[in-house]
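User: Fold this; tokens only.

Assistant: Input:
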Amino acid sequence: MQTTLKHEIKCDGIGLHSGSKVSLHVKPSAAQYGIWFRRTDINTKDNMIAAHYLNVSESELCTTLSNESGVTISTVEHLMAAFAGCGIQNALVEVDGPEIPIMDGSSDWFVRKIISVGIKQLIEPLRVIHVKKEISVKTDNSFASIAPFGELSISFEIDFEDEAIGYQKKSLNMANGSFVKELCNSRTFCRNSDVEAMKKNGLALGGSLHNAIVVSGEKVLNPEGFRYTDECVRHKMLDVLGDLALAGVPIIGAFKGSKSGHSLTNKLLRKLFSDSSAFEMSVCSEKTASVLPGVGIVKDDLPSLY
């Protein structure tokens, strides 16, 4: 069955790129509604944006969605990952600015609130996408693919010159609450030199050690250090789940990524859905429903507070 929230969620936070205060209000919705964003600060043109991979207009530093009127909403990936990881398919997200608040740089706050307010089962059946053949995309130094598999799994590897990050690789089957247990609190990360360059160009104005891991060579500049020794690759996997959620319904398949990012995941979805022989959409069976990422999660699955 499809799901939504039992109650509304509200929060205030800082936009990572604008540095401005943003208010977020997530409301329950009916079945078949999907995930929509409403820019409440805009009332002179269409302010509704569907959470859909074809609406991705920018994906260099984060995932940005836009509608035909040119209205945008950015940094949607962490909230979308929380929806997917908690099994939420329907919600209206109201925000009074151009981006979703960054919170601590992970999906942790959103996941805790979703579990706190509860998940409502809706009568209508849930549809899922089964990958039927392997699809891949690549650039000179990055790669992403998705292949047939009975559940959703994510494998990822990264390799950075900075010794604090270095080479990391991780694979997870996303069933049985793996996202909530192992990925949801992994924070976004960057190099200190990149932060300085972005701010000079008017980007990441809200970035700080409170909402990102910042490294410089072998040093982690955050006083608390990493939450996991492989927190960086875990965050990349979090991003993948959020970007895959823009398919509109859960995907069943095995994702693999190497040094890839938001842009390549979006290209992968576009290539997958351009080939009708590569996927099949069907009503979710009881067997498949039992291994979806958000099935059976409880408050005790949440990582310890910091």
